[in-house]
From TrEMBL:
Alphabetical list of PROSITE patterns matching this protein: 2FE2S_FER_2
InterPro entries noted in UniProt: 2Fe-2S-bd, 2Fe-2S-bd_dom_sf, 2Fe-2S_ferredoxin-like_sf, 2Fe-2S_ferredoxin-type, Beta-grasp_dom_sf, Diverse_Oxidoreductases
The organism's taxonomic lineage, starting at the top: Archaea, Thermoproteota, Thermoprotei, Sulfolobales, Sulfolobaceae
Superkingdom of the source species: Archaea
Organism expressing this protein natively: Metallosphaera tengchongensis
Stretches assigned to the 2Fe-2S ferredoxin-type domain: 9-85
Protein name: (2Fe-2S)-binding protein
Length: 162
């Protein structure tokens, strides 16, 4: 996509099932586009350097840290954010498992943790605790000590198999 200096780029992107045809600054990060242009503020910016995972979203079904991608690179793609994981104001099984297992404190990492868990459990039906720890290594939590998050992932995995 070639854009003249000072011009915006036209993109078409589906976010949580809704098609958006919009103009964006070529340098705008996907996370900033989601938060500022679409008002989807569930994804958080914890570092802006691909370290914390608080900005994790699904891009064409794959887990992506949305601070590592430009909004223009999402042209033609389908994005799911934390807001797209629940329906009719009802928590998804993963969200419910995080709630029931007290897997959050300040909540800053939680959207990223839940989206990453959604990705992990969409790829595999069963998971061991060791695998769960490995698969969330890109998501950092500074409050919980991780055990309750692991408990929530294992619980969500059980709920989704029932
Ligand atoms: S804000 Fe994207 S990884 Fe931290
Ligand atoms: S709950 Fe605070 S950073 Fe994870």
């Amino acid at each position: 996509m070639l854009v003249e200096p000072g011009q915006k780029a036209k993109i078409k992107v589906k976010v949580n099932g809704v098609l958006h045809e919009v103009e964006v600054e070529p340098r705008k990060l996907l996370v900033d586009f989601l938060r500022e242009d679409l008002n989807l503020t569930g994804s958080k910016v914890g570092c802006d350097t691909s370290t914390c995972g608080a900005c994790t979203v699904l891009v064409d079904g794959k887990s992506v840290k949305s601070c590592t991608m430009l909004a223009v690179q999402a042209d033609g793609k389908e994005i799911v954010t934390i807001e797209g994981l629940s329906s009719d104001s009802k928590l998804s099984p993963i969200q419910q498992a995080f709630k029931d297992n007290f897997a959050l404190q300040c909540g800053f990492c939680t959207a990223g943790m839940i989206v990453q868990t959604h990705y992990i459990l969409s790829e595999r039906k069963e998971i061991t605790e060791e695998e769960a720890r490995d698969l969330i290594h890109g998501n950092i939590c500074r409050c919980t000590g991780y055990q309750n998050i692991i408990n929530a992932i294992m619980d969500a995995s059980r709920r989704m198999r029932q």
